[in-house]
Amino acid sequence: MPSRIEVTYFIKGYSVHRYLLSIGGMRCGACSAKVHSALSSLESVQVVEVDHERDLAFVSATAVLHKQEVQLNLSQAGDFSLKEMNADEEPSPPIGGVPLTTGESDSSPEEPPSQSLFPLFLIVGYIFTVTFLIAWSNSEWSMDSMMRHFMAGFFLVFSFFKFLDAPGFASAFKMYDPLAKAIPGWSWIYPYIELMLGVAYMMSWQPFATNVTTLVLMSVGGVGVLQSLLQKRTIRCACLGTALNLPMTKVTLVENGTMAAMAAFMLAGCAAPMLNAPLASLGIEDATSLQVSVMALDGDTYPDMGASDQENLMHGWTILQVCSLDQGPPSIQVLRALNSDIAQGHAGIPVDCFQPRHAVRIQSQDAVKEYLICFQCHNFQCWVDGSLVSSGSISNHSEEILNSAITSCAQDAPEES
Predict the structure, then answer these.
(1) By the 8 A CB rule, do 397 and 376 touch?
(2) What is residue 109's predicted lDDT score, i.e. its pLDDT?
(3) What is the C-alpha end-to-end distance of the chain, expressed in Å?
(4) 368-374 and 100-101 strand pairing
(5) Half-sphere exposure of 157 (CA within 13 A, CB side)
(6) CA angle 24-7-31, nearest 5°?
(7) How far apart are CA 111 and CA 113, in angstroms?
(8) C-alpha 363: how far from its chain's center?
(9) Which of 78, 161, 227, 281 is a Cys-bridge partner for 342, taking CB atoms 3.0 to 4.6 Å apart?
């Protein structure tokens, strides 16, 4: 009884052997990825297609394959068995949708139809729509804010799909990513890195480090995708894990390139708000020469308007801490956030209370303008040169920025001996 079954035909002068394998033990996408990796490791194998739902695999090789050799690789990959190994005498279309291949193909793979990329377009469309709705609800249309929210959604959603089948993703990712090939375990921790990047973008935490990390990862990933496309390898794209069978195409390259470009854009400061942009709600035409201070107030103590010691008071409210901001981006960030919150106002039911725990002082050559803010009640007062000139409702999106500025000042302050 011969231990091998083969069929030989010729493509562009090369002898190619094609086999249809029946494999037992495949139960999910992760099993499919393991079988694919095991068959791809055979030296002469050029094309591998796996369909775990039908327990089939299609292999194209430049040399004759032996059953014993195939079975050995499958058993080393897991609890898999080679039930049958038959010759495929006529070229047939891929059995599993998008073919998974290793090495160079003898012909250029056709660009898959747009239907196969529909899940990717749909997900990106959802993320873009949510980004638009966030900007609309906050009246914040700056490129920096919109890109930050888009990238947060991108990494959070894409990491979710990778976690659905972590083993399958790890196997597929190692097929083309340079870092996954070079660093053991990198493909296993990559979904966690994407998750942390998503959280960092959402919370605007350490933007410089976050954007640098994104730029490096997306650039390296883009290099791996480009190499696969240049080698005409029709492999599975692991961007959405293995839950969705997406092909590696130019769209994947554009995806990586766009994310890298957005990170570089924010790093270069191109997406930062213009320093001299007018702030209509604050009545400011040019904020570049203003001195801005953020203060923490004791909102629980009723104001003493007749107190003799006015240095520690702001319009009767006790000042707990004063943080003077540097001119430029630190001041602009606070002013833009405050301007946006006043412009948006509070959409809820008005509350007749005022216990300010935050204040912002804006000093120019002409006047001193002070905003006392009660985020709990969504109310504010505006004082100019010691006189109350206006009041109204305010949103609370700037509260986190003010708290962050106050906390940073407290950490930078020298300790008393």
Answers:
(1) no
(2) 42
(3) 91
(4) unpaired
(5) 16
(6) 20
(7) 7
(8) 39
(9) 281
Distance, C-alpha 405 to centroid of its chain: 26
C-beta of residue 118 within 8 angstroms of C-beta of residue 246: no
Helix (H) or strand (E) holding 243: none
User: Contact, 70 vs 5, CB < 8 A?
Assistant: no
Q: What are the Cα distances from residue 8, in Å, to 19, 36, 60, 244?
A: 10, 22, 10, 34
In the structure encoding, which two tokens stand for residue 196, read together?
């942390």
Measure the CA–CA gap between 97 and 201, rounded to whole angstroms.
35
Q: Say which residue the tokens 């994947």 belong to.
A: 252
Q: What is the DSSP string of 383-403?
A: EETTEEEEEEE--STTHHHHH
- pLDDT of the residue at 233: 66
- Partners of 279 in the β-ladder: 284
Contact in structure between 236 and 245 (CB atoms under 8 Å): yes
Give the separation between CA 18 and CA 6, rounded to whole angstroms. 7
Return the biggest CA–CA distance within the chain.
Answer: 108
CATH class of 8-101: alpha beta
- How far apart CA 160 and CA 275 sit, in angstroms, is 37
Strands 368-374 and 45-51: unpaired
Fold of 280-412: Dna Ligase; domain 1 (3.30.1490)
Who contacts 236 (Cβ-Cβ below 8 Å, separation ≥6)? 98, 100, 172, 175, 242, 245, 246, 247, 248
Residue 386: strand, helix, or coil: coil
The single-letter code of the amino acid at 297 is L
Neighbouring residues of 327: CB distance < 8 A, sequence distance ≥ 6: 288, 289, 290, 291, 292
Residue ranges of the chain that CATH labels 3.30.1490: 280-412
CATH 3.30.70.100 domain position(s) in the chain: 8-101
> Can you list the alpha helix ranges (DSSP code H) found in 204-321?
207-230, 250-267
* Backbone φ/ψ region at 300: left (φ over 0), alpha (ψ -120 to 50), beta: alpha
pLDDT at 88: 58
User: Is 142 exposed, middle or buried (CB count within 10 Å of its CB: 0-12, 13-18, 19+)?
Assistant: middle
User: What DSSP element (H or E) covers 149?
Assistant: helix 143-164
Residue 301 zone, left/alpha/beta (φ > 0; ψ -120 to 50; rest): beta
One-letter amino acid for residue 390 of the chain: S
Residue 92 is encoded by which pair of tokens?
Answer: 């047939």
pLDDT, residue 7, reads: 36
